[in-house]
Design goal:
By secondary structure, the chain is of the alpha/beta class. The protein has four helices and five strands.
Length: 112
Amino acid sequence: MKIQIKKNEQNVTVIALQGDLDFHSSPNLRKELEKLIESQAPKIMIDLAKVEYVDSSGLATFVELYQKMKHYGAKFSLFNLSESVQSVFEIAKLNSIFLIAKTEEEALRFVS
């Protein structure tokens, strides 16, 4: 999995993922997210446009991020989910917990 991290003009951390988010790749993502949590990043948006598959370990990574960011009052949003990835979040009932946006602009509104 490729992980690209940048800050946009609004000082929001945007993470673009590419590849499958599964048992093999989630530890790398977890490590990158831990760095952001340690620095208490106030706003994170995760672009899933190039992710076609997410398994339970990938979902667990996002749940951990949500819990840790909530603890220090930060916000995060997921955006650009494919239909297959969106359905995984719906089946797991996580679509009611996470801020899931269709576009980057909508995700930015969610975290602002």
